Please model this.
Amino acid sequence: MQDSDLAALVLTVKLASLTTVLLLIIGTPIAWWLARSRSRLKSVIGAIVTLPLVLPPAVIGFYLLVLLGPEGPGGRLTQALGLGLLPFTFAGLVVASVIYSMPFVVQPLQQAFAAIGAQPMEAAATLRASPLDAFFTVALPLAKPGFITAAVLGFAHTVGEFGVVLMMGGNIPGKTQVLSMAIYNHVEALEYAEAHWLAGGMLVFSFAVLLILNSRGWNR
Amino acid sequence: MTVQARFKLSHPGFCLDVNLELPGQGVTALFGPSGCGKTSLLRCMAGLNRSPSGRFSVNGEIWQDGDFFLPVHRRALGYVFQEANLFAHLTIRRNLDYGQSRIAATARRVEFDRAVELLGIGHLLERQPAGLSGGERQRVAIARALLTSPRLLLMDEPLAALDLARKQEFMPYLERLHHELDIPVIYVTHAPDEVARLADHIVVMKEGRALAAGPLTETLARVDLPIRLGEDAGVVLDAVVAEREEQWHLARVEFVGGSLWVRDGGQPIGAKVRVRILARDVSIALAPVSGTSIQNCLSAVVGEMADDSHPALSLLRLTIGPSPLLARLTRRSAVGLGLAPGKAVWAQIKAVALIG
Model:
């Protein structure tokens, strides 16, 4: 394995881990709200969160570039905050990945929260638990299988992304080049042996993830 | 010592409009058919449903009044749901701890061991809710609610999910609660036998309104508004076992004003029981009758009379001392016997059901 491949692997794992953690933190309240709210905004927010599932990654990448570029409102904000510009940086990759993988985390969580229903939360309230207390002591533990599914899917989906990170990151070795881009570069250079190592590894990883998820499903 | 409840709710196809003053002790049954609003009323009391401009207070403590609304988790109540609603991720012991650990140690008036013993769940403590039968789960749910030392216990058809055998098994636990703990209970049910056995007071609900409310015996003996607990009008009297004749398998139970021979239910002398007497099982005579198979013949005074469901029949309220009784007879016999309020008669009671 070449040094650049190793760097891409480390970067990918780092990106996927950070993205998963951020998504669990951001996605939990969104999923909770979507599962419990009766607001009319619910279908709008739900559609926005699901959008990355159906949009071509290039479209998301393009708009993120425009939004976060020097002339975009997001870019102006990050510059004003002294963060500089996000495109073609690791931070930019994280932002793009969080948006791109959002539905894969929010949907399992939303389903898990919806499956719990209102009843256990009502029981907790009659047992003197404040809403926040009940959320942490009843809803979270009951939704644990949903959290595992969400984390695994969020991680795996981030590992596999290509279009968005290519547009946003720019394929800079050691800085924004992730595994999928490394494979692409090897194929372009006709280095099929190297491509096989990485691509085969990804195949095995993805299969293992689905195998684990499925067998958990059967055990439940 | 009262529970005051005034709630108004309206949804398409449903409205709730009640203004009740309930006793701050004993068991009050909210009785009525499905969809009459009794569960909604209970949920309003708990604060699980919010009735705008409602008012609710428990023995002087205001939980809701106008804009003031105490959130559910700050109300000193216990709530037993139709389905036990135990936390699936916690053992029985930790389910029980959940509520108890959330109240101040100084506010605890029900001991853990006492609640466990009262509901007979000691052998279940280390198990998971999923492994329990419906009746066991419901007993745990009641113990869990009691352990928050509630000032008001709300129960929403706690036996509805149980089959008949489980129900019979379960009833004695509810009766023990009733006799041994001094917590007012509001008990939602559509089952006449549960009312007859457990309730001290009754609120009869119909289409979101309270049709009648009052002490059980008095309310059931109203002739202007015969409340049918099940198939027929009748009264329920509190009594005590006074004597047992083992040879005949009979027991004599005393109520305020008289006594009755009933089939021996195995209760020891001194036990508190209830008897239920249906209006159709009571007939009237002007003098004590001899040469009859009827065991119970009591001196009574005629009270109000009212028309019954069929024009041939009338419903008569009698009193035996302070205790009321209902009798059904044809209007012809009522006229023929010259029955009028204040007249002394003999009530022949053909059948008495011993409950509890």
About this structure: Helices of chain B lie at 38-46, 92-100, 112-118, 134-146, 164-180, 192-198, 216-220, 331-336.
